[in-house]
Description:
The complex is a heterodimer of chains A (114) and B (112). With 114 residues, chain A is mainly beta. Chain A has no helices and 12 strands. In chain A, the strands form 3 sheets. In chain A, strands 2, 5, 6, 10, 11 and 12 form a 6-stranded mixed β-sheet that branches. Chain A has a 4-stranded antiparallel β-sheet with strand order 3-9-8-7, with no helix packed on it. In chain A, strands 1-4 form a two-stranded antiparallel sheet. In chain A, strand 7 (59-61) and strand 8 (64-69) form a beta hairpin. The radius of gyration of chain A is 14 Å and the shape is globular. Helix content of chain B is 0%, strand content 51%. Chain B is built from no helices and 11 strands. The termini of chain B are far apart. At the A-B interface, strand 5, strand 6, strand 10 and strand 11 of A face strand 4, strand 5 and strand 10 of B.
Amino acid sequence: AQKVTQAQTEISVVEKEDVTLDCVYETRDTTYYLFWYKQPPSGELVFLIRRNSFDEQNEISGRYSWNFQKSTSSFNFTITASQVVDSAVYFCALNEDSNYQLIWGAGTKLIIKP
Amino acid sequence: NAGVTQTPKFQVLKTGQSMTLQCAQDMNHNSMYWYRQDPGMGLRLIYYSASEGTTDKGEVPNGYNVSRLNKREFSLRLESAAPSQTSVYFCASSEARGLGYTFGSGTRLTVV
């Protein structure tokens, strides 16, 4: 069965610290897509990254980086030198190629203290 | 570019009342979706429309109906609102399955 687990309910760090958000997924499909979304206090959903199951290259975008490891079914997200504006709920999501549903983790609330 | 536009942004209903949530996208996307988000949870799919003229049930369809009016518009109707339908509703669209999903700003619905 398809499932996304974000075991960290809430993380609190001081500004400028690095922080990693964990995401573990389950799927029987060989073709699938993984996503990260940010939901700031204002409530909108902001797309951060999409990764397909055949591309295990890690990606870096500014202070953000993603580590995709099929061997451990994980797609972790690291923020380097965190800033107060990074405070939000972050969601990991899975879309199997065999269906249209985007399966979401429960989210990790990230609090960055000044 | 507007992206995905949802209306209304806020709504309070009494139990048993009906209402329609409107969603429109201007990106010429084929697929559209309705999700609900409850506190402490990720989003759950209510209904989706893979392409114009088709609609299918998602994970939590009970109590809802949808209409894909045309390629741009996808509405969600609550025929007889219940307190359990208090939630934040998001409409989304995508060019195709597995590609990026663009979300509307959400509708916060309270049923009393």
